[in-house]
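This section describes the prediction task in plain terms. A model, or a person checking by hand, is given the sequence of a single protein chain and must write out its three-dimensional structure as a string of tokens. No templates, partner chains or ligands are provided. The sample shown here is typical of the held-out split.
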Amino acid sequence: MTKKIRYLIYFGLVVVIFIICLMHKTTIRFIDENGASIITDQNVRLIKFPFVTHVNGYKQVSGIHYIQQDHQFVAKYKPEKNPLKQVKAAHFIGVTFQPTTVPITKGTQSDPFILSRQYDNGSRSGRDTLRILIGESYKKMKVLNANYPAVSVRDPSIMKQGNKYYIIYTRGLMSTTDFNHWEQINWSSVPGFDYSQDWAPEFVQGHDGKDYVIMSMQKKGNKHHQIMITSFNNGKIGKNWVEITGNLPINTIDPNLQYANGQYYLFCKNENTRKLVMGTSNNLTGPYKMERVQFDSSKYGSIEGPEAIIHNGIISLVFDTYDTQKNGTVSFHGLHYVERNVNGNRWSKMKKINSLIVTRHGQIILN
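The expected answer:
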């Protein structure tokens, strides 16, 4: 074989490889030092593959390697800045979650429905990844660059006790002191209730200085959810659950409870109408006098996950927005908010929380 023919063969092979790289795509997963996804998986053409590994706020700590059983390339990173210092400096801190197996398209993200611990114990996937939000305004939040826990998280709530930050979520509880290392805390199911129907637990700070957990729960054999509350201290969830009373809708989920101006404010979702309700009471457990939260939400099919911030005489109500397509796909559009005076009854127009990800049911609090 002459040298010229050999060069032509080599050139032909290079052209074939180039065409394959141009036509075919690969998946790259970006993970932190704990193995949790830090951004959504990227599907890129092979020809671009080596040039798409930069992630803002993170430093790559290892080369890209191929995971054969997942058919994915994986790149590993660590935060460039100390996450705890950033949290302490923020005026607002929030928690949300981000599905990392589906892309964000025009500000909307479909739901892969990897419910934490509903189908497995959450440790096998970690693809509904916790996100810490920080900012000077709850209306504009950025995602904290940290090493996140490699477990699936939905509907998180955050509270600080001592030097620990606790994060409770649908069927899970954990703590951290630095937002790089995480401790999972065992949480027993409640006797007499359907464990698979425990949704969206939240921390509550009572006027008595004590902390609580409130959650929508469903008794075994029942078809409707009710709101229950119990104590929380030093990472331990109390066993004495008490029902929240009042004229709550017959099927109520996603409770958020705030204490301000000498009374308690309860916000929930009426699961039957897919609208929000609120009520007030002088007592932690009620009875609450409930009414519908009236504002124009016709842009989206459903809203859920109400989270209130009551500060300087203003109620800021943050919530999740989504649509259900004809094929059953649920598309989420990010957290939105409305505002009103504490003593008023007219809510502002609905506006969107500014964030680089499609924020989901979570919580934003004054830090």
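For orientation: The two ends are 75 Å apart (CA to CA).
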